[in-house]
Each structure stands twice: as C-alpha cells, then as structure tokens.
Design a protein that fits this description.
single chain; about 170 residues; mainly alpha; three-stranded antiparallel sheet
C-alpha cells in the first residue's frame, strides 16, 4: 500500500507547485473526518440545534476559556460579527456566558457554562469512540506513523499560520 501511495505522489505532484495536491489531500481528509468520525447530523450539537459555526465557537471556548471576543474570532476564523452572533446563540441556550471585568469594561470575555462544557465533553467522547473504532484495524506501526504525520502537520500549521498548537499555549499567549 505504501508503495502505491509513493507511486501516486510521484505521478500526481508537480514538484514546483505541490499546493493543489496538498489542498486536495487536506480536503479529502476533512471530508473523510466529517463522514466517518464526526458527521454533523450525528453530533450532540445538531441535537441542540447548533449550527456548525456555533458548535465551532463552543468547542474553542471549551478549550480556551475565558477568551476575549476578538481572540475567539481569531481562533475560530470568523469575523467579529459572526462570532458575536454565535456567542449570542450559545448564551441564549445556556451553553456560554459573557463577562465584563471591572478593571477594563471595554473587554468582553466569553466562556462556557457547566452545561456547555458537558456538551462538548459528551461530543468528544462520542467522536473519540468512533475514531478509536476506525483505527482499531490499524497496526501499531501504522498508528505511530499516523501520529508522527499529524504532529508534524500541526506543528507546521502552528509555525506558519500563527495559530496556537494546543489550548494550553493559547491560554498563555
């Protein structure tokens, strides 16, 4: 299988511009993930009536809280107005809250409520179970190779795109 993959790459990748192939592979991985590991229709977020944008904001809040609205927009990749709309829905559903510190009333912080935290944890548990089931057929060596690949890709994105590698790093920015 690995030889077939190497042969495919040698034929399909333009060595002077591999960006289209990287984009196609990234898109395929995203589609595969959405179809097998975390189908939108199958999430606890869909059951709560959350849009994908609102669910994304909730997940970021779960991982990096409390966070200013502007940083939340940055981490989600949303415009400030879309972030505000998403947080409005989350607050209305009791999944998030806003706080304005006394020392700086111009800053607005958002964080998850206990209910919001539990919702993300439940979704993460379900997704993990599906993911673990999917990987159960992989050999230990394949799993280690996958771990190395994902780690390297995440490190490159973090270095070149300016996004934090982990929630812990984001909290200490």
């Amino acid at each position: 299988m690995e030889e077939q993959f190497k042969e495919h790459l040698s034929k399909s990748v333009n060595p002077e511009d591999p960006v289209p192939e990287i984009f196609a592979l990234d898109s395929s991985l995203n589609r595969f993930y959405k179809m097998t590991v975390n189908p939108q229709k199958d999430t606890v977020y869909a059951a709560c009536g959350l849009s994908p944008m609102e669910a994304s904001a909730l997940v970021v809040l779960h991982d990096i809280q409390p966070v200013t609205m502007s940083k939340l927009a940055h981490y989600c990749g949303f415009s400030p107005s879309k972030t505000t709309r998403a947080v409005n829905v989350l607050v209305k559903k009791g999944l998030a809250k806003r706080e304005v510190p006394e020392e700086n009333r111009r800053q607005v912080y958002a964080s998850v409520t206990e209910r919001g935290y539990g919702l993300v944890e439940e979704n993460n548990r379900r997704v993990f179970e599906r993911f673990a089931s999917m990987l159960s057929g992989f050999t230990p060596a394949e799993k280690q190779k996958m771990l190395a690949c994902y780690s390297y890709i995440l490190e490159m994105y973090g270095r070149h795109c300016g996004h934090p590698l982990t929630p812990t790093e984001a909290r200490h920015e």
